[in-house]
Design a protein that fits this description.
Elements lengths: L13 E5 L7 E6 L3 E3 L2 E9 L5 E9 L14 E6 L11 E7 L14 E7 L3 H4 L17 H7 L13 E7 L3 E5 L1 H8 L7 E8 L2 E10 H5 L4 E4 L10 E3 L2 E7 L4 E7 L2 E3 L6 H23 L1
Antiparallel strand pairs: 1-2, 2-4, 3-4, 4-5, 5-16, 6-7, 7-8, 8-12, 9-10, 10-11, 11-12, 13-15, 14-17, 15-16
Keywords: Signal
Protein name: DUF5602 domain-containing protein
Organism: Funiculus sociatus GB2-A5
Length: about 300
């Protein structure tokens, strides 16, 4: 029998998946280029419905990818994953998967366990390079300089931050200022709930730069399945399909783990009406003419 695991590894592959009966919708799965991790590989994927609308996007980890060190001296391991071209309507530009074997200064101890985090970037690599481009690297963790912090900490535009989210105080070069969901994080910090999965956002220059989510290595190894909601903003700065939930699952047939952004919903940026556009052009013309006259004085 041929399974996903038996198929040849390709940079972009397509698999048709029957959902229910013969009259049900057909979904197509597309893969990004695999990248090595542990004793195997990871890769991105997207699932489209028969209207080519995205249903899910995320990262697949083979079982061997979890074969990673857990000592306090082991380094973080990061890999950037481009998305399949078929995911172009998704708001996510690319993923960065990071394996963190321990904590770092400023991180609560309960969170400092071996874990996999996926930063789903809503901006391009070129835009990421503008977030603290000259960081202070003298410490164990790169930090933004005081001059760069001002731009990173620019308050997000109204409605861009999902309701209830609060700043963590953690600011990272190439990522932005992290925001957390108190309803999710506080029960973990007070040990009312175990730390298994978590999500957050990051912002830069007043706009969302990242939707992050992840799971502990220990939770992945239980081969459990879980789906949890993601709080969403009321305003967007870029049109596309955005997630409303995330999942961590294990497929016993392919022996693969999936870390997924789901519940994808299309959100659009309000367009300027033609009448308003003409008014704005007229105002710009008046401003330009005033500047010309002032220059002659």
């Amino acid at each position: 029998m041929t399974t996903l695991k038996n198929l040849p590894m390709v940079s972009v592959g397509t698999v048709l998946i029957a959902l229910g009966t013969s009259n049900a919708v057909q979904a197509a799965q597309f893969f990004g280029s695999p990248q090595p991790l542990g004793e195997n590989f990871v890769r991105s994927f997207v699932i489209l419905d028969d209207d080519e609308k995205p249903l899910e996007v995320g990262v697949i980890l083979t079982q061997g990818a979890l074969s990673l060190p857990t000592s306090d001296t082991a380094p973080n391991i990061s890999t950037v994953l481009s998305l399949p071209s078929e995911a172009s309507d998704v708001a996510v530009n690319h993923f960065e998967l990071t394996y963190r074997p321990h904590g770092f200064p400023g991180l609560p101890e309960v969170l400092g366990v071996p874990r996999f985090t996926i930063d789903s970037f809503l901006i391009s690599p070129q835009e990421r390079a503008l977030i603290c481009p000259y960081p202070d690297t003298t410490g164990s963790v790169a930090t933004c300089t005081p001059d760069e912090l001002a731009q990173v900490l620019t308050p997000p535009q109204p409605g861009v931050v999902p309701p209830g989210l609060q700043p963590t105080g953690i600011v990272s070069p190439g990522i932005g200022a992290r925001y957390f969901d108190p309803d999710v994080l506080l029960p973990i910090l007070t040990q009312q709930q175990p730390f298994t999965t978590l999500y957050d956002y990051a912002f830069f220059n007043g706009q969302a730069s990242v939707i992050g989510f992840g799971a502990t290595k220990a939770f992945l190894e239980t081969q459990s399945n879980v789906t949890k909601p993601i709080k969403v903003p009321s305003s967007y700065t870029k049109s596309g399909y955005y997630p409303t939930e995330y999942s961590v699952t294990f497929d016993p047939t392919s022996q693969e783990y999936k870390m997924v952004l789901g519940g994808l919903t299309y959100r659009s940026v309000p367009e300027i009406s033609p009448r308003l556009g003409l008014v704005m052009l007229g105002l710009l013309g008046v401003v330009f003419e005033c500047k010309k006259r002032l220059a002659k004085i």
